[in-house]
Design brief:
This protein is α/β, with parallel strands linked by helices. It has a domain at 1-81 and 199-251: P-loop containing nucleotide triphosphate hydrolases (Rossmann fold). It has helices spanning 51-59, 100-110, 118-129, 145-156, 175-190, 202-208, 226-233, 238-250; strands at 9-20, 23-35, 40-44, 66-71, 74-75, 85-88, 163-167, 194-199, 211-216, 219-224. The strands form 2 sheets. The chain has a 6-stranded mixed beta sheet with strand order 6-7-8-3-9-10, with helices on both faces. A hairpin with a 2-residue loop joins strand 9 (211-216) and strand 10 (219-224). The longest helix is centred in the C-terminal third of the chain and has 16 residues, at 175-190. It is globular and about 50 Å long. It starts with 8 loop residues before the first strand and ends with a helix. 37% of the residues are buried.
């Protein structure tokens, strides 16, 4: 924690159990982490590890079965406004009948742009930032998965948020697109933004993150710098370290 300042995000002993017909399913247990201002923290885990559940709790979309979340030191309330957070969900589904520009401009207007001026100007700048400036008039329904993901990033940036929470931000992108998105996120960090994102792609985590969290079967197995995780498993290969961690957790 920066001296005198609270953590941007603090998750304290979060637990989440879903009630299923076949019985209770524990998606998250004793999950605790802190995200510092200006850092990029990546939550890494295999599919079904509980990453999206953690994000939904932190965003206030679902309530934890136990534990609590603090944002900038304040307890999270379900109805509290979060204008300083930009969010990209795992399954981004904007209105398919709008054009790319109409949708992003609408998000910018909601975030404070005027109807006739700054909202449109900011929307165009954001489309340029995410590589969608050539397609402002294309309908959302006609976009590929990767193009839709870029639009999702543009809407996450629309309010110039202090904190970005991104669930699988490079999903659906080709290698060039993934590299471009990583460069955008690194540029956001240079502007002082704080980024918390989920991924199962090790290469982007290694390139982006100041710290990583390793989540397996709902439990946080590691939290710290990537190099610390490599030292834990005495290997310079992050893929190998991750495989060993998952195997150890499931043994």
């Amino acid at each position: 924690m920066t001296e005198g300042k609270p953590h941007i995000i603090e998750a304290i002993s979060l637990g989440k159990t879903y009630k299923k017909r076949e019985g209770p399913v524990e998606a998250l247990r004793e999950f605790s982490l802190q995200v510092e201002g200006g850092e990029i923290l990546g939550l890494l885990g295999p599919n079904g590890a509980g990453k999206t559940t953690a994000v939904k709790i932190i965003m206030g979309f679902i309530s934890p079965s136990s534990g609590r979340v603090l944002l900038n030191g304040c307890p999270l309330q379900p109805a509290m406004p979060r204008p300083a957070i930009g969010y990209l969900p795992e399954n981004f589904r904007p209105n398919p009948n709008l054009t790319v520009l109409e949708y992003v401009k609408f998000q910018c207007d909601l975030a404070g742009g005027s109807i006739n001026g700054p909202g449109k100007s900011r929307a165009l700048n954001l489309l340029n930032l995410v590589g969608m400036d050539r397609f402002p008039n294309r309908r959302i329904s006609d976009l590929s998965k990767g193009m839709g993901q870029r639009v999702g990033l543009a809407q996450a940036f629309s309010g110039d948020p202090e904190l970005l929470i991104l669930d699988e931000p490079t999903s659906g992108l080709d290698p060039v697109g993934k590299s471009e998105v990583i460069e955008v996120l690194l540029a956001m960090k240079q502007r002082g933004k704080t980024i918390f994102f989920c991924s199962h792609i090790l290469s982007e985590v290694e390139r982006l993150c100041d710290r990583i969290g390793i989540l397996v079967d709902g439990a946080l197995r590691f939290l710290g710098p990537t190099e610390g995780f490599k030292r834990k498993w005495e290997s310079s290969d992050l893929d190998e370290c991750f495989k060993r961690e998952v195997q150890w957790a499931k043994s």
